[in-house]
Write a structure and sequence with these properties.
Chain lengths: 185, 185
């Protein structure tokens, strides 16, 4: 399972590609940033973000794209400009029919550090540790993108555990039910 | 000169294609709306907007794309969602290396009606009149897109007039300048 995490921005878009093995082990395949040309207009920047994400999708063929959801409030102008960058990422995913998973900043922090209020340094420290890296991914936007990809891996693992636990309860209930009462599956 | 005006929205994106002749006369080539699939996710919708604009660009080969600028304030969430739709339009333009012109709602109203505070009905009435149509373009999002395209045509005409007036003043000044004082262009 290969997951592309993206932290969109009109100046710098971070990306991180993480692989999750059948045993649940995660490893970093690649991370970096797409820097758009300073002083170029927004349309050109959006195109550069789209092309950059396209290249990563071609190179790594992830099965899913994870991005930060539309949750936090900023001023409307900043939010709209950011929406352009995010739109370019979603478009690239949709054109390859890749599902998009969205996580709030608090969900990402909770998944990586165990607290929705973790600092940027705590996130970087845990990303480095979880992926057994010699140093935290640089720059910070790349680390954030890796954190989003990891969040998706852990959300998947949690969902799988919940399903197993559910099946286990159902199985236990079936074992304890008297044979004569059977029939309703 | 063919101008594509676009009024982006995640549910409905209006577009209007206007031709401006050498004599300054404007005519409507086509207008309509791109409606995205209800209940589909934002990534899919962004892709539908992009594909719709792509089709119009292929069919009408405009020289420029005019859109509403990022000027007005809404709540941040609405603004960010709208940014996705706008990003899809800008991307389609940038990929064909088409210039993008941006106008504020007040500029559009002022160009079409002569007042920055015109109502939607006044805009529709003037769009119909300026383009000699039997009825105002429908639906309203298409009419808005046509108004943005017309605004660009008139902004161009105004800029040309200003240049002519400027040249005229320069010419008049040159004619009045004593021949002995010449030399500094």
């Amino acid at each position: 399972m290969i997951v592309l995490g993206v932290d969109p921005g009109t100046a710098t878009t971070g990306y991180g590609v993480v692989a999750r093995g059948r045993d649940g082990a995660v490893s970093l395949l690649e991370c970096g940033v797409i820097r758009t040309t300073p002083r170029s207009d927004l349309a050109r920047r959006v195109a550069e973000i789209y092309e950059g994400i396209e290249e990563v999708l071609t190179r790594r063929t992830p099965e899913i794209v994870a991005v930060e959801g539309i949750f936090y409030s900023r001023n409307a102008r900043t939010a709209m400009v950011l929406g352009h960058a995010r739109g370019a990422v979603l478009l690239a995913a949709a054109q390859r029919e890749l599902p998009v998973a969205e996580y709030s900043p608090a969900e990402v922090k909770h998944a990586i550090v165990g607290s929705g209020r973790a600092t940027k340094e705590q996130i970087q420290f845990m990303v480095q540790r979880l992926l057994r890296l010699k140093a935290p991914p640089q720059p910070a936007d790349a680390a954030d993108a890796v954190a989003i990809a990891l969040c998706h891996c852990y959300a998947l693992a949690a969902a799988r555990l919940a399903t197993l636990a559910q099946n286990d309860r159902v199985g236990a209930a079936a074992r304890h039910r008297p044979a004569a009462a059977g029939g309703a599956a």
